[in-house]
Amino acid sequence: MNNTQKFFSILAVFIYSAITIIPIVFAIDRLILVSGFNPILWIQSLDQNYVSQNSIAFTFVQAFFSTILTVLIGFPVAWVLGRHSWPFKAFLRSILTLPFVIPAIIAAMGFLTITGPYGLDVRTDESTWWWTLIFSHAWFNIALIIRFCEPVLSTLNPNFEEQLLLLPNGVTFFSRLKNLWIPILTPSIAAASCMTFVFSFTSFALVKWITVRDKTLESTMAEVSSSAGIQGYMEPSSDIVLGASLIQFLVLLASLWLMSFLQQRRQTKWQQASELFVQNKNAKGWFVLAPAIFFVQLPIISVILGSFRVRDVSENSNSFKWSTEGWSEAFQGSYSFPPLSEALFNSLIYSFGTLIIALPLGYILASTIHQLEENNFNLSRILEIYTMLPFALSAAMIGLGIMLGIIKLNPSAAYDFRFLPVLAHVMITVPFVVRIILPALRSFDLSYDENAKVLGMSNFSRFFKIKLPLMKGSILVATVFTLAMSLGEFGASFIVARNSEWITLPLLIDSLRGKPMKDPLTVPSSNAVATVLMLITMILFLIVEKFRNTKDRGMF
Amino acid sequence: MNFPHFSKLIVACLILFPSFTGCISEDKSDNELVILTYDVNALSDSMISKFENSTGLEVRMIKVEDSGSILSYLIQNKGVGNVDLAIGLDNTYLPTAIELDLLEEVSIVKDSISGKNSSSQMPALGPYDGNLATPFDMGFICLNYDSSIVDGLNFTIPTSLWNLTEPEWKGKVALPSPITSSPGRGFMLATLDYFDWQNNDDDFSNWWTAMKDNDAIITSGWSEAYETHYTGGYGEYTEGYIGDAHITVSYCHSPGVESWYNGNWTKSASLDIDKTAFFQVEYASAIKGGNSENAEKFIEYLISSEVNSQMPVENLMYSVLEGQNLPEENGYRFNSIIPSNPAVISNVDIGKNIEIWLEEWNEAMIKSE
């Protein structure tokens, strides 16, 4: 590592620390100033406050059942997709994994429309809300099971199964399941389940809109966030935030450790074969694929249709008419809500702002980790874990950290600094950029760089003329992923930007949906904004798919 | 994408981003009035533009979720001076704002406001008549019931709060939480007076515990209670409606609003039980450190006859002006009641005790009978 590289590496670590760690430390300091340092009391406060009572149990139970249902729905899909050949397979895979990149607030709108009066009409029965949430989590996370299991299923040498068929332990389907598939697939399923659990555990938008009064730790934290960190006023809010954050941090940390452990086991080399050799045709597979495609696309289509369906108030009944009034309302805006174009502009500004900071920062951090791996392995591991730290913080924790941290530094900046959401989005996206760039750097053939060095090319030329073109696929994936994540981000933005004029698309959807429902355009206008956000996300996702390295199929 | 294009894209992004930042950044100027508010319907586009045209000031809004969020914002930003005027603090939050020295005095002539010169049934200046806050709308918070179901046959019309703890009302009452809703907070304050909190008995806590044990539906806000759960209102025409509660907390004039929207028809009615209604007044206040001169201009405009007389139709609340009433059209006034014996809790008591009362409410809700 030469001096220039060292300078950039140190600068990147410094900026990363300033953006991510300092606000969180300040926020915790401010909360502790109000609540005192007593972690046991923080956790006890969750059950001692009516607003957060039962949220611990609800969070764990719904995350557990969401994970089970996700595996039950996702695994058969991964199996038929992996073991059989299909026309337009890449397209099918894209469709089936699309939900994972759709912002959660859109999923919420889709499921509300499906279960609402013009769909299944089961919202009137409150007991259905819990299952709606579980199904929506399964919908959201089904892609994880497919992404983790399908590559293993599609490339495992079929000789294994054929040989097992001849042995006493492989005669029946169940014995082959026990002796072959379960040992091979368990690490992948467990890793995907672990991630599903984490995403369901920290679910916010879906819980806020679907189960309403039953809250996760994440949605509880968001609800009390406006009065947290204030001495002498609503002090229990600070206890609740600290208790919820602590539990979330520990659970996410444990999940990350488990994930990392399982990932290592997943990398155990099994004899592989070409997909063409492994996969055969199986028309019966459509009995699994067709309902799965229907399940995945239904909420998306519901949102689009819902943007054109307007309740007919003249008849004072549940009849509706097809109209573009919802779109007009969304485009025009009102005193209470900015027009769609303004929210889109804000969202684009935030996402490009996030990209401009997160991409170079993530690249330099990944590059530093990669270079340290050669000279100082232990330091590289420490830095790698350090850059993954925001993974152990939920979106609400990040939002609150930024908000309270900035208030500590400069109170007016917390409400007047327009780019506050960018800081939150940078925190959320940098770890993903590092995760996408690092494997690409590791697989980069260093001989190109060394030959160029021998030929006398400068650092700058070598970077722009050799490294960048060879890595453009990964950089583009990181770029698009950063843009998509920032555009759809809701949890942190809800905390840092809801009390501002700089409303984003997901916040506009939430605000429109939250206004009194007497207005027949409440639902269609929120669905219209959701449709725009969804289309942008889908286009970005299709770009990612085009540039994604086939070897990376098992990862996001 | 080849290399030159890719690098051009990066360079373009780097150049464009700072230019975007320039076009959306704003600094507070003397010619600007920054208003902190929640979604108060009365502040319509046309109303704001008219003010801007007549004064030459530019209005900028900071919108927060509700009255409680206005207070939180002001506390977090104490001394910063980034806000000139707060619109929407009500008399359950105002005492805390005064106690924490967040507001600035302005000299507004309040002669036209009810309660200044006469003994009105709804004295807008009753809860507070100082110079730190000026009332702009008001109404009584009370229990509403669905008269098509609570008709004396299917359900008995309650005459006491204890009736609601009986098995007949199990799971049929929706109440917004006082922690997260200002109507909820107003109703909780009314129950304190109902159970005579000054005598220090436990009826207040016991009643709330009994309500919780009787499966009362506690919601985070008014909308959820009224639109999602209440059978007597317009909620049944909206998505997400459940309709499992026949009694909820709303305003005593909410049945009038229903009637006004439905062409002189409503099945919702207000319950006039002694000491269960809370008189809520919403205020506009200049903020310490802000431009109080500009704030004063807007407050004067807000309580002008031209704007304030429209409160019942624009904001669905009573005007604070002397002699103003709800319109008679479509049964608006006929279906709205003024409670005969509302709860009385002074602003001083609220300011001193609100945190303790909320804590007591919380204790009552987490324990079981």
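qc> The longest strand of chain A covers residues 309-311.
qc> done
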